[in-house]
Amino acid sequence: MSDEVLLVDNVPIVGASPDGAMISVWTLNRPEKLNALNADSHTALKQACSDAEANDDVRVIVIRGASPPPAVEGKRQKPAAFAAGADISEFAGKNSDDVRSFFENNAWEKVWNLSKPTIAMVDGFALGGGTELALSCDIRIASTRAKFGTPEINLGLIPGGGGTQRLTNILGYGKAMEMVMTGDMMGADEALRLGLVNEVCEPEELEGCVMKMAENIARKSPYTIKVAKRAVRAALDLPMSEGILAERSEFVALFDTADKEIGVQAFLERKDADWVGN
Ligand code: COA
């Protein structure tokens, strides 16, 4: 087993345009600790964000957890996990001065601020910082055995990776309060019903579901996809009247791109668009 806390695998998408398109699959790799996010995980995630941002071939990012290791004799099998939170062992004995700069420069925000689309592939536990990492992604696809939750309250803490804000945004005030104040877990069915996840699949089908969605997005114009992400994101940050103006400005500007003309002509000529990415 690799001792790297994050494995990055760039999967080529055959026939996508412009040439060289890849889906970058990031695997949190501390399965013996249920992929809990330690300081090294944050450093590796932030580096992966910088690398993905700098690489035009990376069209979509998928974040997942490593599968549980084989059971050790005499011990029970560890459960599947996306990430069971921040690594709690790193919290012991620390005061606010010890943790402030780390939390001011965390990976959840770096993932959230990626200009490219992100999909969280959640199999098993996504707790605390794990739920927050999934929330930092644009889309969440979960297995039937996924469990979400913000149990920080049981540690005398609250979510610190954007969870209170992003949960409220997706679930609404009351349900976010319930999650944050009880620390109780939420199963995949409820997460789907409440819009916390986009889709739920059987565990053995999860990777296929995620890669299908990722490939679908990776086949669009990478330029237009970034504009689409910016425009939808504006709905979170701006009052509606300003968001409408932001959308209109992005829409009109797209009429100066090559990919708008390529897309429109491809439709009219009933052929596939051969995007150039600008
Ligand atoms: N930080 C550090 N280690 C963690 C961890 C975390 N957030 N979550 C799990 N682990 C470790 C456990 O210490 C254990 O390590 P060990 O085998 O070396 O003793 C291993 O991962 C397996 O976890 P375990 O608790 O034995 O599995 P379980 O099936 O009994 O329970 C959970 C699974 C997810 C319910 C339980 O691990 C848990 O509650 N984790 C903490 C969740 C949390 O509070 N997250 C928010 C952090 S801010």
User: How many helical stretches?
Assistant: 11
Q: Can you write the helix and strand succession as a string?
A: EEHEEHHEEHEEHHEHEHHHH
Strand proportion, as a percent range, falls in 15-25%
Mean pLDDT, to the nearest integer, reads 97
Global shape: globular
Q: What would CATH call the class of the largest domain?
A: Alpha Beta
Q: What assembly state would you assign to the polypeptide chains in this entry?
A: single chain
Largest sheet: 6 strands, mixed
CATH fold-level name of the largest domain: 2-enoyl-CoA Hydratase, Chain A, domain 1
Give the number of DSSP strands. 10
CATH level-two architecture of the largest domain: Alpha-Beta Complex
Count of individual domains: 2
List the ions, cofactors and other small molecules found in this model: coenzyme A
Regions with little confidence, pLDDT below 50 for 5+ residues? none
> Widest sheet: strand order?
1-2-3-5-7-10
Rg over alpha carbons: 20 Å
What does this structure look like?
This protein has 278 residues and is an alpha/beta fold. It folds into two domains: 213 residues, 2-enoyl-CoA Hydratase, Chain A, domain 1; 47 residues, Lyase 2-enoyl-coa Hydratase, Chain  A, domain 2 (Orthogonal Bundle). Helix content is 44%, strand content 17%. The protein has eleven helices and ten strands. The strands form two sheets. It has a six-stranded mixed beta sheet, with helices on both faces. The chain has a four-stranded mixed beta sheet with strand order 4-6-8-9. α9 packs antiparallel against α10. It is globular, with a radius of gyration of 20 Å. The model has no long low-confidence stretch (mean pLDDT 97). It binds coenzyme A (COA). The site of coenzyme A has 17 residues, from β6.
